[in-house]
């Protein structure tokens, strides 16, 4: 799915764009915790993983347009992600100087 879609976050919102249609399909507004980074979940293509201050948030943009499932992940801002599709995992990097691997 991520081959057909692009995801972007700003401090106040997250958006899923269709590459072929060139338009925004889904939008999520932050409920207070500013978004910093994102990546598609390698095992669930309809889930966007969003990094914020201390939290990793999962957004199922196909079914829950304005709801995330937050998980306490780091002690500071999650600044970036990288995914490992063949392993079904992602790594998060934070300003707390930790790298964590998630399945």
From TrEMBL:
<dbReference type="InterPro" id="IPR001680">
    <property type="entry name" value="WD40_rpt"/>
</dbReference>
<protein>
    <submittedName>
        <fullName>Uncharacterized protein</fullName>
    </submittedName>
</protein>
<dbReference type="GO" id="GO:0003714">
    <property type="term" value="F:transcription corepressor activity"/>
</dbReference>
<keyword id="KW-0853">WD repeat</keyword>
<dbReference type="InterPro" id="IPR015943">
    <property type="entry name" value="WD40/YVTN_repeat-like_dom_sf"/>
</dbReference>
<dbReference type="InterPro" id="IPR044716">
    <property type="entry name" value="LEUNIG-like"/>
</dbReference>
<feature type="repeat" description="WD">
    <location>
        <begin position="71"/>
        <end position="103"/>
    </location>
</feature>
<dbReference type="InterPro" id="IPR036322">
    <property type="entry name" value="WD40_repeat_dom_sf"/>
</dbReference>
